[in-house]
Amino acid sequence: MSNIQSILITGANAGLGRESARQFAQINDVKKIYLACRNKEKALAAKAELEAETGRSIFEIILIDVMDLSSVRKAVANIKAPIDAIILNAGGTGGTTPRALTADGVTNIFAVNLLGHTVFVDKLLKRNLINSTVLYAGSEAARGIPKMGIERPHMETSSTEEFSAIANGTKYGEGSDPLVEYGAIKLTAAYWMAAMARKHKDIRFITVSPGGTSGTNGMDDLPFLKKIMFKYIGGTIMPLFGMMHGLDVGAKRYVDTVMNETFKSGHFYASKGNFPTGELVDQTLEYADLDNPKFEDNAYAALLSFA
């Protein structure tokens, strides 16, 4: 068991972030949980609910909007003590305009899932504010689930230029499927995390998919029919066929990975085989490209160019 006593979770007021905060609070050794949220009112409500549910007053709010790099830098400035584990959970499909560009030159969907977290981790490391572990909330979409019609992201060269094209949206045309871009972004993140593991050997960097999880807010901004499919119909029907599990199961993947040191730094863990649920396995054993230092460094360089 890892000696984790303090944890920060982005996107902690709802869904997987909130549920993982609740589960971490049930571990006696955990003494502080930072709820890193965009909306103050929702954060305060989540804090009050979590205190009532767990009987513990160990929650502290950090305001951060990962789509806004000035907000990210301000959040880091407000953190005064090192934190043992950082969970990069905030994300989604980028709002109603996922392909619109931010002031930093990346799409909204890229900013919310990856660029903000990249800068957040970089600034925390520069101030020596991470003690042990960084967990990035990956996705089954990064490995593909043919049984659900989700193909593995197609990469031509995995060059810095191709990763940059994913970031600024030029790899995909107008009207492209947000889920296709989402998968490519999550794959980029897995490469970035692997690069970080090699560059910072004293910190564990692990990418973990929560699996197909019902009850999250991540798909709220999908086009209407896809939202209905994934959020409502999917949440009812897919669990019957092993295609989805509950929030508690998805969040437990975060908890287990953070607290168990057998999960290896630099590796990407997701479900096994054709299902987005069930056994959690090391994807680097399934896909050789996930253990390619050149690809990892190219993703890292692309991110650095926008940060």
Tally of helical runs: 9
| Helix content range | 40-55%
Stretches where pLDDT falls below 50 for ≥5 residues?
none
Mean pLDDT equals 91
Number of strands: 8
Class of secondary structure makeup: alpha/beta
Largest β-sheet summary: 8 strands, mixed
Please state the CA-atom Rg, rounded to the nearest Å: 18 Å
Shape: globular
Q: How are helices and strands ordered from N to C?
A: EHEHEHEHEHHEHHEEH
Distance between the termini: 35 Å
- Strand order, biggest sheet? 3-2-1-4-5-6-7-8
Strand content: 5-15%
Can I get a quick summary?
The chain contains 9 helices and 8 strands. It has 307 residues and is an alpha/beta fold.
In terms of topology, how is this protein built?
Blueprint: E1 6-10, H1 15-25, E2 32-37, H2 40-54, E3 59-63, H3 69-77, E4 83-88, H4 108-126, E5 130-137, H5 160-168, H6 178-199, E6 204-208, H7 224-237, H8 247-259, E7 268-271, E8 280-282, H9 293-306
Helix pairs in contact: 1-2, 1-8, 3-4, 4-6, 5-9, 6-9
Description:
The protein has an 8-stranded mixed β-sheet, with helices on both faces. The protein starts with 5 loop residues before the first strand and ends with a helix. It is globular, with a radius of gyration of 18 Å. Helices cover 41% and strands 14% of the residues. It has 307 residues and is an alpha/beta fold. It contains 9 helices and 8 strands. Strand 7 (268-271) and strand 8 form a beta hairpin.
